[in-house]
């Protein structure tokens, strides 16, 4: 029987990053993955393929603005969806191949098959050819991720009533796509198909889309997406999703009991994701699973069984690839006897629509609930030279700072390239910067990042320069 210092179950961004860090720290490491491709949800059916389709559809939608820039396109510009999806798959395959390369480079043993606990130090791997291999380890890290969840009355047939996984490989552009759930995944995929020519309607139970983010971001994103043609039915509870032939009927009810009926050819159910532990036999190792299906962990990502840890989507907290990666690194270092730390307040959240939406720290709503006195400074992108040069005028940066100490408590932004710009806010907050600190840093001109400096000036003493 093969024996390892650390075995990781699941090769998503949590699992594979953890494996690399374990190997760097000198541990004999193995990673178990039930699929033949490495990289988990993120690389195969999540972050990377969705960003590939967002990029392709963004290029297509930008053609509409070429004329403003003096670029004349003659002849018909058409979408070849099959080719677009094939390109996306090529990006996925190459990225997943990159993870395999990293496993080999770091001398990590890759074991393909479903991993199930035998006890707290042994894992059986059920292989595709029907054979079973049992391996042993001093430490085991559960990194089994998540799967799309649904509502009890919805039957996902993966053809017309679909999840994000199927939405990443449709064979045609829907005529009308009804998205159930206005969270990040639904909105991103909605914008892909909106750009490609679909009518897109979003039904959301809460009173706004991307409800976890600062309300000002929801408001601005809704405004921009409405301008692009997306329809929204917020504060509506979906009651029925029914397929008849190639058509799907979606019915939803508002607080007054009024019902709307939407007819479509595809309905994307994106109501969240559930932690995935099916087939893991966690009970055989004595590992506790919470009522929400999450593997229970302490602040050190340790389960109730001391040599078993868990990370990523399968444990509490934001279901984000970079959160899983941080936890993967942290757990490897804990096993090595180090004392790493994650500040969960500083894990940024991003929506990769265009304009992009990004945030870190506390929202206005959270600060109000916790009774913290704060001040706020905003700066609109349309006042930026760089935004005007490129024609990307939508959005703003908002900085929330402590009213007394001026420490930055939250940064919320929507606009061009915010997914990358948010890194400045994370860095500043990691070093406990004040709004004035940011406002006194030189920001290259003309850049989108100047909006951060200007918002910091606005928060410091209402002294933004360019409005
Ligand atoms: C459409 C979509 C877009 C997304 N976009 C983003 C984004 O832009 N940015 C971002 O941060 N996050 C994004 N996410 C979320 C991100 O994909 C997840 O947060 C991330 O993949 C979680 O990583 P993980 O390692 O915890 O688990 P996963 O990536 O889910 O990986 C778990 C792996 O474990 C394997 N596994 C499970 N059980 C077993 C078992 N018993 N034996 C062997 N193997 C097993 C699974 O097959 C899988 O490969 C997106 C998700 C979706 C669906």
UniProtKB/TrEMBL annotation:
Reaction it catalyzes: N(6)-[(R)-dihydrolipoyl]-L-lysyl-[protein] + NAD(+) = N(6)-[(R)-lipoyl]-L-lysyl-[protein] + NADH + H(+)
UniProt keywords, alphabetically: Disulfide bond, FAD, Flavoprotein, NAD, Nucleotide-binding, Oxidoreductase, Redox-active center
Q: Where does NAD(+) bind?
A: 181-188, 204, 272
- A GO BP term, please? 2-oxoglutarate metabolic process
Q: Which residues cross the membrane?
A: none
Which superkingdom is the protein from? Bacteria
Cofactor(s) demanded: FAD
Protein name as catalogued: Dihydrolipoyl dehydrogenase
Native source species:
Flavobacterium soyangense
Q: Which gene encodes it?
A: lpdA
């Amino acid at each position: 029987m093969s024996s390892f210092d650390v075995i990781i179950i699941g090769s998503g961004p949590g699992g594979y990053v953890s494996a690399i860090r374990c190997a760097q720290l000198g541990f004999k490491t193995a990673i178990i993955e039930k699929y033949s491709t490495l990289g988990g949800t993120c690389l195969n059916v999540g972050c990377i393929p969705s960003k590939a389709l967002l990029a392709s559809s963004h290029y297509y939608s930008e053609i509409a603005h070429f004329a403003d820039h003096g670029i004349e396109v003659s002849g018909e510009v058409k979408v070849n969806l099959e080719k677009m999806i094939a390109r996306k798959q090529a990006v996925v395959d190459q990225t997943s191949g990159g993870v395999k390369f990293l496993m080999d480079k770091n001398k990590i043993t890759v074991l393909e098959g479903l991993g199930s606990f035998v006890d707290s130090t042994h894992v059986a791997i059920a292989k595709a050819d029907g054979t079973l291999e049992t391996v042993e380890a001093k430490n085991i890290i559960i990194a089994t991720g998540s799967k799309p969840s649904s509502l009890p009355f919805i039957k996902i047939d993966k053809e017309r009533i679909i999840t994000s996984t199927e939405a990443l490989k449709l064979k045609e552009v829907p005529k009308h796509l009804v998205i159930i759930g206005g969270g990040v995944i639904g909105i991103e995929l909605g914008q892909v198909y909106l750009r490609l020519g679909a009518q897109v309607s979003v039904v959301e139970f809460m009173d706004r889309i991307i409800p976890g983010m600062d309300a000002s971001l929801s408001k601005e994103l809704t405004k921009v997406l409405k301008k692009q043609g997306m329809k929204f039915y917020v504060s509506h509870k979906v009651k029925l999703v029914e397929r008849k032939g190639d058509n799907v009927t979606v019915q939803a009810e508002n607080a007054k009991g009024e019902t709307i009926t939407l007819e479509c050819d595809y309905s994307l159910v994106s109501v969240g994701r559930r932690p995935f532990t099916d087939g893991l036999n966690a009970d055989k190792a004595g590992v506790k699973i919470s009522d929400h299906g999450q593997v229970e962990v302490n602040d050190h990502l340790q389960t109730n069984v001391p040599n078993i840890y868990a990370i990523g989507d399968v444990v509490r907290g934001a279901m984000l690839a970079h959160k899983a990666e941080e936890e993967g690194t942290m757990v490897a270092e804990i096993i090595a006897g180090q004392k790493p730390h994650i500040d969960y307040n500083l894990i940024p959240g991003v929506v990769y629509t265009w304009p992009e939406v990004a945030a870190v720290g506390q929202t206005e709503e959270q600060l109000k609930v916790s009774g913290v006195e704060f001040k706020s400074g905003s700066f609109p992108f349309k006042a930026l030279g760089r935004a005007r040069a490129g024609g990307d005028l939508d959005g703003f940066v908002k900085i929330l700072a402590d009213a007394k100490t001026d420490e930055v408590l939250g940064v919320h932004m929507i606009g061009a390239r915010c997914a990358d710009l948010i890194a400045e806010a994370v860095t500043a907050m990691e070093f406990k910067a004040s709004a004035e600190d940011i406002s006194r840093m030189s920001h290259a001109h003309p850049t989108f990042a100047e909006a951060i400096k200007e918002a910091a000036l606005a928060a410091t003493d209402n002294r933004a320069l360019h409005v």
